[in-house]
Amino acid sequence: MTAQEIINAALRALGELASGQTPTTEESNDGLTALNKLIGSWSTEQLLIPEINRLSQPVTPNTQVYTMGPGGTLGTVRPLAVHAVSVTTSAGVTQAAELINAEEWAAIADKTRTGSFVSKAYYNPAYPQGLLYLWPAPIGGTIQVYMLKELTSFASLGTNVDMPPGYDRALIWNLALELASNFGRDPNIVAAEAQQAKAAIMERNARTLGIPQPTAWREHPPERRPLAAPNEGSEQ
């Protein structure tokens, strides 16, 4: 689905376009800006990321810190989060590392150790390059990193992005919600559809990716969660 198709559908949902009509160039460009900002915002919510990506790359011997992002030592975009790290030796033996936090990493007394496997890994999502710390530093083999990446934005109005089921509907209704105030429309005319479409893909991703659900989800699953009252705003 192209960005233009999503924008047109969002404007139709708001009642700004009739079937067969097209928006002005200015409206389309404003819609593209709003769409990419929406996607950028969604990338900060792990439950909206549809897949865990796997990176496999030869180890740089005895290297403890790897950069992940533009020009980094690991060939990938900056991950939003790292879910698992393992090292496979030249003999084909693999061992997973324990993921630890900053305090646990700081507590390691001897950070100069090297070894065949990595026992602990700590990811700092710094920007523009994330930092992956490994202990002991691996002497060789192949490192595998399982991570969440940002959602793909639209480079132009004609850019076609292949999306998992449900994402097109969620983007259309949530873009309509974003654009409602620009056209003097009441956001509540699209708020319910926007919230339900977004909740549906978040609930599915929580199940398939094994990402823990927030407490509010356990109390009110998406299909039963009450919609926000008009004065409480809408979910973004």
Number of individual domains: 2
How much is the average pLDDT?
89
Number of helices: 6
Determine the N-to-C terminus distance. 22 Å
Helix and strand content put the structural class at alpha+beta
State the CATH superfamily name of the largest domain: P22 tail accessory factor (Gp4)
**How big a fraction of the residues is strand?**
15-25%
- Write out the strand line-up for the largest beta sheet, numbering strands in chain order: 1-10-3-4
Q: Give the overall silhouette.
A: elongated
Look up the CATH topology of the largest domain: Hypothetical protein yqbg
Q: What is the level 1 CATH name of the largest domain?
A: Mainly Alpha
Share of helical residues: 25-40%
Using the 3D structure, state the CATH architecture of the largest domain. Orthogonal Bundle
Number of strands: 10
Order of helices and strands: HHEEEEEHEEEEEHHH
Largest sheet: 4 strands, antiparallel
Output the radius of gyration: 22 Å
Unreliable parts: 215-220, 222-236
Labels describing this entry:
19% strand, 236 residues, 4-stranded antiparallel sheet, 4-stranded mixed sheet, disordered C terminus, alpha+beta, 2 domains, Hypothetical protein yqbg, 6 helices
Overall description:
- Helix content is 31%, strand content 19%.
- It is α+β, with helices and mostly antiparallel strands.
- The chain folds into 2 domains: 3-48 and 151-232, Orthogonal Bundle (Hypothetical protein yqbg); 53-148, no CATH class.
- It has a 4-stranded antiparallel sheet, with no helix packed on it. The protein has a 4-stranded mixed sheet with strand order 2-8-7-5, with no helix packed on it.
- Helix 1 crosses helix 2, helix 2 (25-42) crosses helix 4 and helix 4 (167-179) packs antiparallel against helix 5.
- The longest helix has 22 residues, at 188-209.
- The two termini are 22 Å apart.
- Mean pLDDT is 89; it is low at 215-220 and 222-236.
